[in-house]
Amino acid sequence: MKTKQKVMMPILVFILVISIWEMSVRAFHISLYVLPAPSKIVMAILDNFDILWMHSMVTLKEALIGLVISTLLAIWIAIGMDLSKVFKTSIYPYLIVTQTVPIMVLGPLFSIWLGFGLAPKVLIVIFMCFFPVAISFCDALGQVDEKQVNLLKSFGASTFQIYKMIKIPSGALGLFSGLKVAATYCIGGAIVGEWLSSSAGLGYYMLRVKNGYMLDKVFACVVMIIIWSILLNLAVTFIEYMVFPHLKKGKRK
């Protein structure tokens, strides 16, 4: 019963909000260029699906490349910080600094330095996705039971074996927690990059239709962004359960 409630309650709230939205737009005769009704947004998605799909593929490519690079970089940096306190003390403040500078400030600089192609969008995604993965994984590695590590050391295990057998499997939950956040951020990062300089992508298309006051198409882009973000988050969860099935069993218990 509780499981059904967890599924049904968000659906009911969604239906209620959409219904109120639709009725309010119709009752108060709100113009399309101010606030489109949900039915108009659905029609915009259906009528322009080919265009939205084409631009989605551009955005998805930028997001996935940035996500993969940022994840690999974050894993190595996190392991390095766990191995060396000196390295962690030296680099940690700079990781914090990368999150204090607004990405809208860095974006134009990336475009000047790297041009208007794929590179600046990917770099923006890396900046947005790197931090949660690195910090979550580093914290998870630091919380591994020292007794287990010392036991392996007593059997003569190397550093590589310790990380392979104990630390990485134990820290996997933290890694995937950060990766789920990054998977949600990566689409937004690609969109920001496209706002600043692009000739294709959902961000580019959104700006184009916004300038024409076609808000139904703007909301159609927003819906596509939400869908892709959710799908990437679910994909990370699926990979988590495939690579570490014991995590799924633990959550069930």
TrEMBL record:
Membrane topology, record value: Multi-pass membrane protein
Record's GO cellular component terms: plasma membrane
Family listed: Belongs to the binding-protein-dependent transport system permease family.
SUPFAM superfamilies cross-referenced by the UniProt entry: MetI-like
GO biological process assignments: transmembrane transport
Residues that span the membrane, as ranges: 51-79, 91-116, 122-142, 172-197, 217-244
Listed name of the protein: ABC transporter permease
Gene3D superfamilies: MetI-like (1.10.3720.10)
CDD domains for the chain: TM_PBP2
Keywords from the UniProt entry: Cell membrane, Membrane, Transmembrane, Transmembrane helix, Transport
Main location: membrane
Subcellular location: Cell membrane
Domain ABC transmembrane type-1: 56-236
InterPro entries associated with the record: MetI-like, MetI-like_sf
